[in-house]
Amino acid sequence: MTTIVWFRQDLRTEDHPALLAAAEAGPVLPVFLWHPESEGHWAPGGATRWWMDRSLRALAARLAALGSPLLVRTGDPVKALPELARESGATRVHWSRRYEPAAVRQEERLIDALDAAGIGHASFNSALLYEPHEPRTGSGMPYKVFTPFWKACRAIRVPERPHPAPKALHAPERVPGGVTIDSLGLRPAISWDAGLAAEWNPGETGAAARLKTFLDGAVGRYAEGRDFPDRPDTSRLSPHLHFGEIGPRQAWHAVADAMQRGDDAHRRSADKFLSELGWREFAHHVLANFPRTADEPLRAEFKRFPWRTDPAALRAWQRGRTGYPLVDAGMRELWHTGWMHNRVRMVVASFLVKHLLVSWNEGAAWFWDTLVDADLANNSLGWQWAGGCGADAAPYFRIFNPVTQGQKFDEAGAYIRRWVPELARLPDEALHAPWEAPPLVLVQAGVDLGVTYPRPIVDHGAARAGALAALAAFSGKPLPDEG
Ligand SMILES: Cc1cc2nc3c(=O)[nH]c(=O)nc-3n(C[C@H](O)[C@H](O)[C@H](O)COP(=O)(O)OP(=O)(O)OC[C@H]3O[C@@H](n4cnc5c(N)ncnc54)[C@H](O)[C@@H]3O)c2cc1C
C-alpha cells in the first residue's frame, strides 16, 4: 500500500509524523508540488524562493539516502495529488497541516477531491506545539493577548517529544515522472544572493547545526543578549523553523533539556527562548483564528487610518537611506543577508509606520519579499504590533526613538559600523545622530552629509508630533502624556 507524502513547509525527515506513519505502512512516494498561485497574493517572495531552491535540494538528497527520492512536479495540489495517486497506484496521501488562510482552504478542497476519488488521506501536526484551535479563553474564544495565551498553552500539556526519522523508506514500484528542481526557476535571474549564501545553509542539516551552535553558546546568554543586534545571542533558527527544516518540538526539547543542565541564569535564558517559541505559536493562533489579519488590522477601526502615500520615503526606507543610522543598518542587513535582528525589526517597522506614516502593509510586503524567514503569521503579527493595530500591540503613542535605541542597544556602534560603513570612522558619540556632530568631526571621519550619507529624511521630534496628532485626529481621543 503506497502512501504519497506531500511536503509543504515541513522540509525535513526528523519529527515528521506524516512521513513516519507512511513509512510504517509500506512504500512511500515523497512529493513536492510547486504552485505559487495557491498562495494567492502571498506567493513566495524572492528570498523565500532562494531558500526553497536550496532546501528542496537538501530534502531530496536526504530522502534519496533513505531510499525513496523526492518527486517534484508543478501544478495545483488539489488536482495533482489525486492524479499522482492514480499514476503511482498510491492509496493514501499524508501531509502536515498548515494554518495560513489560503493553505487551509486548499486542504479543504484537497480533502473533497481525494474523497471523491476514493483515495485515503490523513494530516498531521508537525508545525506547532499547540494547534490554533486548542487554547481557548474561559468563554471559548481565541486569545488576542500573549500572556494569558501562553499560560493557557502551557497548561494544556508539555510539548510532545519529537519523533525520530524513519530508518529507511521503500520506494514504490511505479514512480511517475517529475521535473527537476532547476526547472522551477527559483534561483534569482540576476545574482544578488552572495550575502544570503554566505550566511545560511538551508536544509535539515543546516538547521541542526544552527541549533547546536545555539545550545553550545548563546542559549545561556539569551535573556540578556537577545536585544543587542551586534551580538550573536539569538538562535537564527527562524528561516529553518519557517520552512519546517526543524520542528518546534525539536527546538523546544533540545533547549528544555539544556535548561536542566545549567545554572539559574542559564535556566532563565532558556525559559525566555521557550517563550519566544510561544510568540510563534501566538502568531499562528491569531492568523488562523482571524484569517483576515494578513491583510487587514485586527483592530478594525485602523482600516480608516489615513496612511500617507510617499514612494520616495518608502524607497529611502527600503534601501537603508533614511539618514537614521540604526534604521539604515537594519534595512541593509536585511537586503544583504535576508534577515534582521528582532530589536532592529521593531525599530525600522516603527519608523516606517510612525515617523513616515506609511502603512504597515507596505512594510509587511517588503519584508515578505526580502526576508528568508518571511512567514505570514509572524510577519503579520510583527507589523500589526508595530502599527499598534494588532493583537497585543504596542500602543500607538509609544514611538521608538531611533537615536536612543541605537545608543542603548548598539552603544559602541559595532552593528551600525558593519552595515553603514560610510559612517564607520565617526566617534561613538556622533554615530547615532551624525547630523548633530560638529563639522570638524564629520570632515575627519570622511562624512559629507547629503553626499556620502543622507541627512535625516524626517526630523524625529516633528515626525513624532505628527504621528501623535494623526492618531488624535483619527481616534477623536486625547493622547496620554507619554514620553
Ligand atoms: C515587524 C516584524 C516583522 C517580523 N517578521 C517575521 C517573519 O516574517 N518571520 C519570522 O519568523 N519572524 C518575524 N518576526 C519576529 C522576529 O523578529 C523573528 O522571529 C526573530 O528575529 C528571528 O530571529 P531568531 O531566529 O534568532 O529568533 P530567536 O530570538 O532565537 O527566537 C526563536 C524563535 O522564536 C520565534 N520568534 C521569536 N520572536 C518572535 C516574534 N516576535 N514573533 C513570532 N515568532 C517569534 C521565531 O520562530 C524564532 O526563530 C518579525 C518581527 C517584527 C517586529
Task: Provide a descriptive summary of the structure in words.
With 483 residues, the protein is mainly alpha-helical. The protein is built from 21 helices and five strands. The chain has a five-stranded parallel beta sheet with strand order 3-2-1-4-5, with helices on both faces. Helix 4 links the parallel strand 4 and strand 5.
Relevant terms:
DNA Cyclobutane Dipyrimidine Photolyase, subunit A, domain 3; 21 helices; 3 domains; Serine Threonine Protein Phosphatase 5, Tetratricopeptide repeat; single chain; 483 residues; Rossmann fold; 5 strands; binds flavin-adenine dinucleotide
CATH superfamily of the largest domain: DNA Cyclobutane Dipyrimidine Photolyase, subunit A, domain 3
Order of helices and strands: EHEHEHEHEHHHHHHHHHHHHHHHHH
Count of DSSP strands? 5
Report, as a whole number of angstroms, the end-to-end distance: 67 Å
Topology:
Blueprint: E1 3-7, H1 17-25, E2 28-34, H2 46-66, E3 71-74, H3 77-88, E4 92-96, H4 101-117, E5 120-124, H5 146-156, H6 194-199, H7 204-216, H8 222-225, H9 238-242, H10 248-261, H11 264-289, H12 311-319, H13 325-337, H14 342-355, H15 360-370, H16 376-387, H17 402-409, H18 414-419, H19 428-431, H20 439-444, H21 460-475
Parallel strand pairs: 1-2, 1-4, 2-3, 4-5
Helix pairs in contact: 3-4, 10-11, 11-16, 13-14, 14-16, 15-16
Give a brief rundown of this model.
The protein is mainly alpha-helical.
